[in-house]
Design the sequence.
């Protein structure tokens, strides 16, 4: 069993992870910008090593109702990816995409959830393809699952899978916003401990190439 | 009053002794059994497993004066948050029905401990927030849709 603590993550490692994710996010933001025709701003990604019970808080509060789009990552590098839109942002996004937000505040029609799932698919794929090119490793996203529910309940699903192996996880969080702040969202990448080692090795090679 | 926010596939288990109005709440992440050799790892928490948390909670109540034969259980949670995608085989390789497996493990563990299950609100595909009043045994389950019920 590999634990994150065995990896002895230093500030340099975390810096490399932030940089890698920044590039992935840049790619995803370009895709989003092309879809909705609005500029998208990115914040600097944050990396945190937290115990599993503190993850929901990191996702913006356990009881807050959000749209969560979840993908499992397969391939050389494995892990979990979660795209979270606050309820209001999901509504603005749907208004931009489909010409009208859902009438019901707490329900999504089949068409609306399908549109959001597709957005998630496109954003995650562009994020992961940037990582793939950068690291020279294969990353295969699963079909996205969508839930419109309390953040804590959504993240439970991921934490349970992680909980079978670890008690702590590395969360790489990247926030984005657009359309005058009406559209905000967070990308969460939770690499498996074993995959993290591969990512860091690839990052090291990358840094040496650049030097 | 004890509260668990945003339960998805996890299960909240309240144990309550109405005789002395004493209760406790456990938050179950995994069905178990807990693997051996986890102790000593940083941040290790065996209480995320049903087979560890429930005996520990019962013990905690008993040393505070609860009578095991009077203790009742109320449970909520065990949803399958991404059930539609799971059924379509979309999340290939992800263990199916983790919510169901958690509920099953909790029921089995309660059976083993001889604790009757007084009420439950489990399954489905919605998250829940649970509020448990230890003095009265009142167990309130609310969901993101705004609905709530006392069980």
Sequence:
């Amino acid at each position: 069993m590999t634990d994150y603590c065995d990896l002895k993550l230093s500030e340099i490692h975390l810096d490399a992870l932030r940089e890698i994710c920044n590039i992935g996010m840049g790619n995803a933001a370009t895709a989003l910008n092309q879809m909705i025709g609005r500029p998208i701003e990115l914040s600097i990604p944050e990396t945190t090593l937290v115990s599993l019970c503190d993850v929901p808080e990191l996702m913006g509060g356990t009881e807050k109702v959000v749209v969560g789009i979840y993908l499992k990552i397969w391939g050389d590098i494995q892990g979990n990816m979660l795209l979270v839109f606050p309820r209001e942002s999901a509504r603005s996004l749907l208004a931009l995409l489909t010409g009208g937000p859902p009438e019901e505040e707490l329900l999504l029609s089949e068409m609306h959830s399908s549109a959001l799932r597709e957005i998630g698919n496109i954003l995650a794929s562009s994020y992961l393809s940037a990582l793939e090119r950068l690291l020279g490793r294969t990353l295969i996203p699963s079909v996205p699952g969508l839930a419109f529910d309390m953040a804590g309940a959504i993240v439970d699903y991921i934490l349970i899978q992680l909980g079978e192996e670890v008690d702590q996880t590395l969360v790489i969080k990247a926030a984005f916003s657009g359309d005058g702040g009406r559209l905000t969202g967070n990308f969460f990448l939770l690499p498996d401990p074993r995959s993290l080692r591969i990512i860091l090795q690839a990052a090291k090679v990358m840094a040496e190439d650049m030097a | 009053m004890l509260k668990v926010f945003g339960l998805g596939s996890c299960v909240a288990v309240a144990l309550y002794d109405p005789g002395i109005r004493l209760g406790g709440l456990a938050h179950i992440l995994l069905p178990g059994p807990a693997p051996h050799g986890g102790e000593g790892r940083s941040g290790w928490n065996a209480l995320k497993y049903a087979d560890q948390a429930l005996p520990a909670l019962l013990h905690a109540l008993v040393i505070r004066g609860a009578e095991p034969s009077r203790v009742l259980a109320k449970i909520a949670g065990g949803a399958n948050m991404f059930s539609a995608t799971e059924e379509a085989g979309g999340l290939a390789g992800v263990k199916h029905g983790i919510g169901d497996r958690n509920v099953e493990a909790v029921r089995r563990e309660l059976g083993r401990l001889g604790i009757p299950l007084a009420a439950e609100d489990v399954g489905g595909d919605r998250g829940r927030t649970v509020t448990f009043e230890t003095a009265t045994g009142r167990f309130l389950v609310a969901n993101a849709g705004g609905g709530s019920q006392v069980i």
Chain B has three helices and eight strands.
